[in-house]
Amino acid sequence: MPREINLDGMEVSILKALGLSGNETQGEDLLTKISDIEIAEMIDIMSGLVALGYVDSDFPSISNSEAFKKARFRVNSGYSHDLKEALDPRIEPPKSRRVRRE
Asked: In the chain, how many domains are there?
């Protein structure tokens, strides 16, 4: 059963920049891909995504810009399918073909 995941616009932008394939992205590369977000806001959003378990990081705590630039991030493979559905809400769950007969 899929989990209900609600994301705001910045979280969607970050997850799209990370990609859902599970490849690692360094924090410095993430900053260059998304240049319209301040680094403090990026740290805050990524800390939230890591705390929720949607994103994995090799640094346990990202508290400053230097640690963020050195850290490597990737989408948690356990959530990748659910995040893909959250990023593209047009996908509808398959309808049951069972028909109730009276």
From this structure: 1
